[in-house]
Write a structure and sequence with these properties.
Layout lengths: L3 H11 L2 E3 L17 H5 L2 H10 L4 H6 L2 H14 L6 H12 L9 H10 L4 H8 L1 E5 L7 H4 L12 E2 L2 E2 L1 H5 L1 H11 L6 H16 L4 E5 L1 H6 L6 H11 L3 E5 L1 E2 L12 E2 L5 H9 L5 E5 L5 H7 L6 E3 L9 H15 L15 H26 L6 H19 L4
Parallel strand pairs: 1-2, 2-3, 4-5, 5-6, 6-9, 9-10
Antiparallel strand pairs: 7-8
Helix pairs in contact: 1-18, 1-19, 6-18, 8-18, 11-12, 16-17, 17-18
The structure holds D-arabinaric acid (RAT) and zinc ion.
Length: 400
């Protein structure tokens, strides 16, 4: 092998990626598909930064058009101040990867230049080496669910997942929707399962997902629908993905940018894995406090797989620390990252940033085993990276 560092970099940059959690929609579903620099700037991570950095009137800001909002974000965070946060750096990565010279330019100038590129999803997927992304699909959102009315998009690239939060936060609405769609049912449990079966057939999801705060996690196993949902997931042979530790609407005025963090009691996760050994559980935790325990739990259960650096965890300093910990405790038996992208163009930065971190962390580990006379080959590195970026996900989702 030539140079270890260079070999790892090349392999990490060339390996196909299966992005297990995004909020993307195919371009054909125009109402929900987001792309372009204006949407990139209107990301709620940047909006939260704008609100807390300036004294801008929040209500007035939200009434502006998308372009007016992105103009303000560009001026305030990128021109008046140094764009040094992770969310800001993400925008710079996208612009520099696309060779757009942004120095001393206004939002309109950049927007013009960016629009001229006419970037398609497929081009963005290619730049980032993404083969498949999993969408977040809410079967209790009638308008969003129209995506499945006609599948004139590439269903092999954009895979579905069933987001079930509403059952736990807005049950009455869910039962109403189920009743409108299901004629015959024995009781409410039967109704929910029949509706899940219906939306399963429409969307062919690769997993079901739920985000929970600590209180919701604590009462999860006592919820009257949970046991039937687990039985149904087992029959369908799809995992349940648990996104743990989000405290919704800490600041309601901020809207989507107002969610915060909750520390969770992971004994409850352990109990879920014990009670449902035949169900597969994917899990990502939002708080740094929970990462060590989560990683140890992933050594204790065959049915538990850790994935990604979720949202507030997706910071390079934390990723370096926890990625090392995960490798130390789990080898390569985890899914190291997901993008959580809402705008297709964000795939560029989310994955670019992660690849740099992963290459460096892998280098240190390979170097160490080399010093112990282990002969690491290029093929083996390719195989390892392919497990991390693709195969671990594919296997856990039973997509072989
Ligand atoms: O990261 C985000 O964009 C969050 O707003 C959430 O969507 C989170 O990832 C979730 O899936 O609940
Ligand atoms: Zn998400």
């Amino acid at each position: 092998m030539k140079n270890l560092k260079q070999t790892i970099n090349e392999i990490v940059n060339e390996t196909e990626i299966f992005d297990i959690h995004t909020h993307l929609f195919p371009a054909e579903f125009k109402k929900y598909h987001l792309s372009g620099i204006s949407e990139v700037l209107n990301y709620h991570y940047l909006i939260a930064e704008l609100f807390t950095t300036t004294n801008i009137n929040i209500k007035k800001f939200y009434r502006l058009t998308n372009e007016e909002k992105s103009n303000i974000i560009w001026e305030e965070l990128f021109r008046k101040r140094t764009p040094i946060s992770e969310a800001c750096k993400g925008v710079l990565t996208i612009l520099s990867q696309l060779s757009i010279d942004y120095i001393s330019k206004s939002f309109d100038e950049i927007n013009n230049e960016y629009s001229k590129l006419n970037l398609t999803d497929l081009q963005i997927f290619k730049i980032s080496k993404i083969t498949k992304v999993v969408m977040t699909n809410n079967p209790f959102d009638k308008s969003e669910w129209q995506l499945f009315n006609n599948k004139k998009w590439d269903t092999k690239k954009y895979l579905a997942s069933l987001r079930l939060d509403d059952i736990f936060t807005n049950l009455d609405k869910c039962l109403d929707i189920c009743k409108k769609n299901i004629d015959h049912f024995d009781n409410e449990n039967d109704l929910i399962i029949k509706y899940l079966e219906k939306v399963y057939l429409e969307s062919k999801p690769v997993y079901a997902a739920l985000s929970l705060n600590n209180l919701q996690l604590k009462s999860f196993l006592k919820n009257r629908f949970v046991s039937d949902i687990f039985k149904w997931l087992e029959r369908k042979n799809i995992p349940l993905s648990l996104l743990l530790g989000v405290k919704r609407q800490v600041n309601k005025e901020f809207l989507l940018a107002g969610d915060g963090i909750d520390k969770v009691d992971l004994n409850n996760l352990s109990e879920i894995c014990n009670q449902y050994p035949n169900n597969k559980i994917l899990c990502s935790c939002l708080s740094l406090n929970d990462q060590h325990e989560l990683t140890v739990l992933a050594r204790k259960y065959q049915n538990l797989k850790i994935f990604g650096f979720w949202w507030f965890m997706n910071q390079p300093s934390l990723i370096k620390l926890i990625l090392n910990l995960r490798i130390e405790l789990l080898g390569l038996n985890f899914i190291p990252q997901h993008s959580d992208a809402r705008v297709t163009d964000q795939l560029i930065y989310k994955w670019f940033h992660f690849k740099v971190l992963l290459s460096n962390v892998l280098y240190d580990h390979y170097k160490e085993i080399q010093l112990k006379n282990f002969k690491i080959s290029e093929n083996q590195i390719s195989d390892d990276v392919s497990k991390l970026f693709y195969k671990n996900t594919q296997n856990f989702l039973n997509l072989n």
